[in-house]
Design goal:
The protein is α/β, with parallel strands linked by helices and 524 residues long. The protein is built from 16 helices and 22 strands.
Length: 524
């Protein structure tokens, strides 16, 4: 496939190419299945331009880059490869739009978001097909993601009308003391490829509901889902310049990111992606003392205590570990199993993995495990498995590249894993279940907390005292007790330690896009 994480592999087409040659809708069609007759097709949501100030635009340089389906390696299409100049232009448009958008009423913003939600729902299947084509995840999971993404649009349509200030009992009879909440300004956003739709609506809709405008850079591998969202937002009546999407290749990502972070116009940066990139953006935002939200990598512990319901724990592992082929930030990463139930758990997990997991193309109904995002991701997972085997882990299932294609890796079960192995220390980001045996609760909590990350953590126990103790001790932002799938629109999402800053979703998510202003009226 063309599109791997190596920057050289991104094909930059020269500006000498005629525009007609850059139109790729037709090339793309053999990678996106057609719609049933009468339904808007997935291809009608495939845009080969970026979206700035309500217009479909090319890069000033004329450069484009290609996006491929990670399952087949076929080209889906191309989008503009934008740079710092293009980003600056988008920032200025977003700033002009902000001056108007902040004057709208909460109800006006709410009604537009609500319409956007309805349109997303109406086109759910076609949006999901586009997502599967560019990300590779099974269509059923893609539909789930579109539901999740739409849910954030709906949620923030509702939250827009619930931004309340305060009236403070005054310190003198002649004074009145108030707290106002005001939109922070233009927000810069950078999102990853593993949830190409939901990570956008979770951020952008909070900002838009608060009265902010947005300049967003989606991941190189998955720009089409972002652009499709822009089309629906436009149809819903979102004014020009409120949502702007700047597409760029991995080569240009640092300059686009730096332009957002260093701009004095941008008042807020919201990023979801790796911890390494998050630290760079945090540093770059320091010069303008920006408010920054970071949703970064995890290394989720998944603990099974002796008292656990083993069948429930295995089912919880399956859903937590293998969603999106193990490429989610909240995937179980180091699975810790107490010695009394270790053999039973491992045997049952191996059995269920064999029964339930099917590797293949995301458009095949029987597929539960799509490809990894690109060949570099497969290289990383393969080297993590090799490291574990070399250091003495047992291989109970899988363990190698799949014959389904270049980007596929077999679901893998490793036993007798130790804390020295890379699969315990690093975020695996692939379909590898790494099981560590432990003796005591203290030991499990210590291993769980030994990481610099602190996003999600899970444990299975039937002991009520233990449930309270461990839930309080785990150093994570999200804790699943006897449950492996805990993300919800209504619940706060975010990490502690190096997993990030701030919370998204829930009643707290909109706070990141609001400034608190204290107003004291004297002389009354
Ligand atoms: P990544 O390399 O950090 O990329 C994420 C985004 O940042 C992409 O849009 C990428 O653009 C951009 N980017 C990369 N380098 C940049 C730079 N120097 N300046 C500005 N932007 C830059 O992360 P990833 O490996 O694709 O994504 C997986 C990671 O995201 C995992 O660690 C996962 O745990 C984390 N994640 C966290 C959450 C959460 O909510 N906590 C959710 C999902 C994923 P290009 O694609 O063009 O390189």
């Amino acid at each position: 496939m063309v599109c791997c994480m190596c920057s050289r592999s991104v094909q930059i087409l020269s500006r000498q190419l005629k525009l007609s040659q850059l139109r790729v809708f037709h090339i793309a069609m053999d990678t996106v299945p057609p719609a049933a007759s009468g339904v808007r097709s997935a291809s009608s949501f495939l845009f080969d331009k970026a979206f700035v100030n309500g217009q479909w635009v090319t890069a000033k340089s004329g450069s484009v880059y290609q996006i491929t389906n990670p399952s087949t390696g076929k080209t889906i299409g191309s989008v503009p490869d934008m740079n710092a100049d293009d980003t600056q232009q988008a920032i200025e448009k977003a700033n002009a739009a902000f001056l108007r958008w902040r004057e709208t009423t909460a109800k006006e913003r709410s009604l537009i978001l609500r319409k956007w939600f309805d349109l997303t729902n109406q086109n759910k299947l076609e949006l999901a097909k586009l997502l599967t084509a560019e990300n590779g995840k099974p269509l059923k999971e893609a539909i789930g993601e579109i539901n999740y993404a739409a849910g954030f649009i709906e949620w923030y349509a509702e939250e827009a009308r619930r931004v309340y200030g305060d009236v403070i009992p005054p310190t003198a009879a002649s004074k009145r003391m108030l707290v106002l909440k005001q939109p922070i300004g233009v927000a810069g956003m950078i999102t990853p490829w593993n949830f190409p739709s939901a990570m956008i609506t979770r951020k952008a809709c909070a900002a838009i509901a608060a009265g902010c405008t947005v300049v967003l850079k989606p991941a190189e591998d998955t720009p089409f889902s972002a652009l499709a969202m822009c089309q629906l937002a436009k149809e819903a009546g979102l004014p020009d310049g409120v949502l702007n999407v700047v597409t760029s290749s991995r080569d240009n990502a640092p300059s686009v990111g730096n332009t957002l972070c260093a701009s004095p116009i941008i008042k807020k940066i919201s990023f979801t992606g790796s911890t390494v990139t998050g630290k760079i953006l945090l540093q770059q935002s320091a010069s303008t003392v920006k408010k920054v939200s970071l949703e970064l990598g995890g290394n989720a512990p998944f603990i099974v205590f002796d008292s656990a319901d083993i069948e429930a724990a295995v089912q919880g592992t399956m859903v937590s570990k293998f969603r999106c082929s193990g490429q989610t930030c909240v995937c179980a990463n180091k699975i810790l199993v107490q010695e009394g139930v270790y053999e039973r758990y491992v045997a049952r997990l191996a059995e269920v993995m064999k029964q339930e997991l099917r590797v293949g193309d995301g458009f095949d109904d029987s597929t539960t495990q799509g490809p990894l995002i690109n060949s570099k991701a497969v290289d990383k997972v393969e080297s993590i498995v090799e490291d574990a085997k070399k250091l003495g882990a047992g291989l109970l299932y899988g363990g190698k590249r799949s014959d389904k294609g270049e980007n596929f890796f077999e679901p893998t079960l490793l036993s007798n894993v130790t804390v020295e192995m890379r699969c315990a220390k690093e975020e695996i980001f692939g379909p590898v279940a790494a099981v560590i045996k432990f003796k005591t609760e203290e030991e499990a909590v210590a291993i769980a907390n030994s990481s610099n990350s602190g996003l999600a953590g899970y444990f299975y126990s039937q002991n009520l005292s233990q449930i309270w103790r461990v839930a309080e001790k785990l150093e994570v932002g999200l804790c699943g007790v006897n449950d492996g799938l805990i993300s919800a629109i209504e619940a706060p999402f975010g990490g502690v330690k190096e997993s990030g800053l701030g919370r998204e979703g829930s009643k707290y998510g909109i706070d990141d896009y609001l400034e608190i202003k204290y107003v004291c009226i004297g002389g009354l």
